[in-house]
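Design a sequence for this backbone.
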């Protein structure tokens, strides 16, 4: 019989010995206080679409084989975003490829809110999905050619993550159905997923929309995780994605006091807007380092459990350490 495990916790600073042993020291410190590990920037050309994609690549220490995670930024972001998550996962033994999506990236943010709303389109969403599929093609090509460090990559252990518009991108790759593409655009080469600020979508019941998402899927949201574009999304609506997922491979992390930008994972480029649609909640900005530490640690455990079949990580996720009062963890 399937069952749902819900963990609520009031021990804000509680840690287990396993957490310290299984994840990098980075995860337990203040993210912005850590020395930045050099990351490789490159541009990958998808000749079929005549589209050049900026990427940022982080390699774990050593020369051992490693799983790889492909990360998709939110609307108006870039390959520089998600650095907290990228460094955490690199420290936990993963290669990380941050993909920048032309047409819905930082130049659009600089053009203003009207341009942002225009860029949040089905056309840009399809381009992002194709970007992620091309990146897997390129990773595969380089790994099979044993091209330098790419020879380390375990092609059977590739994960996909994304924030906001990147989460919607990842949801499509995981198998979510959409009214504009009802048959789904699943990418079978991804083994597991994380969606930061997931979206339940529109025009379909959440159970219908997510019924075909059968691979491990973690959604992460919280109290103030609303929608900067003003479409009425709330943290509770984002959390409803969990209820739409089939039982057995799903998980949800809810963070009390976190807002939309808490989940972007930006330490180098923190958003501190005090007004307008990108205004930060005061308590979210204040608690961001705490939220970053927790998400970095639990997401690293998730990847180790799902991509590497790490039994210790699986055990730790049954009762995750470090949850604060009002946080919750659900999985089944």
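Sequence:
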């Amino acid at each position: 019989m399937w069952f749902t495990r819900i963990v609520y916790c009031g021990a804000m600073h509680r840690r287990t010995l396993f957490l310290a042993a299984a994840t990098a020291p980075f995860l337990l410190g203040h993210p912005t206080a850590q020395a930045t590990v050099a990351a490789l920037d490159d541009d990958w050309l998808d000749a079929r679409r005549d589209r050049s994609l900026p990427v940022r690549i982080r390699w774990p220490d050593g020369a051992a084989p490693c799983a790889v995670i492909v990360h998709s930024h939110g609307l108006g972001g870039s390959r520089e975003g998600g650095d907290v998550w990228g460094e955490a996962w690199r420290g936990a033994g993963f290669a990380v490829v941050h993909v920048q999506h032309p047409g819905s990236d930082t130049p659009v943010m600089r053009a203003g809110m009207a341009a942002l709303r225009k860029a949040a389109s089905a056309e840009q969403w399809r381009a992002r999905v194709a970007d992620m599929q091309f990146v897997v093609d390129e990773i595969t090509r380089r790994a099979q050619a044993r091209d330098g460090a790419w020879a380390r990559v375990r092609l059977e252990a590739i994960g996909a993550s994304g924030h906001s518009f990147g989460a919607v991108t990842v949801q499509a790759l995981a198998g979510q159905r959409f009214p504009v593409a009802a048959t789904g655009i699943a990418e079978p080469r991804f083994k597991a997923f994380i969606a930061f600020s997931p979206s339940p979508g529109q025009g379909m019941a959440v159970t219908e929309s997510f019924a075909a998402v059968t691979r491990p899927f973690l959604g992460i949201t919280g109290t103030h995780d609303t929608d900067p574009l003003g479409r009425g999304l709330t943290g509770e609506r984002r959390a409803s994605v969990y209820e739409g997922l089939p039982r057995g491979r799903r998980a949800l992390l809810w963070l009390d006091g976190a807002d939309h930008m808490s989940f972007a994972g930006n330490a180098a480029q923190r958003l501190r807007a005090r007004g307008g649609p990108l205004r930060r909640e005061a308590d979210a900005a204040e608690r961001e380092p705490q939220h970053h530490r927790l998400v970095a640690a639990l997401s690293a455990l998730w990847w180790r459990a799902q991509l590497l079949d790490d039994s210790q990580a699986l055990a730790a996720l049954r009762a995750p350490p470090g949850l604060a009062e009002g946080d919750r963890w659900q999985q089944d």
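The radius of gyration is 18 Å.
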